[in-house]
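Predict the 3D structure for this chain.
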Amino acid sequence: MEKQWTCKEDILCGLNEPKDKGNLIDLEKKHIPVIDAPETVKKDDTFEVKVEVGKLLAHPNEPGHFIEWVELYSGDTFLGRVHYNGGTSYPNATFKVKISHSHGPLKAWGKCNLHGLWEGTKEISVR
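Done. Predicted structure below.
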């Protein structure tokens, strides 16, 4: 009899997050987008947000295994997306954004062609 998978057991189903943020396994280190942004920004001022997949542990970048894209959100508000091609570009993006009020944490999603969708977050305050 074939095993029935639930979404929590299937890496390609839904959004992947670390099981224990204090003790990441290598798969998580390779895939979690790391966000570099100021802790506090002024309302409607432009600022930079850098997102890097593979910062904690290098992610493969080859035609058969690569990061397809990275998206940035403020809470659930979409801010931007960068696409990558396997073997030709490193999954590292810089976004210039401005926000008028706090929508929640900054969230970055990275999509690996083999291991699905991964999320990294960072709290930010808008003054």
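The chain has a mean pLDDT of 90.
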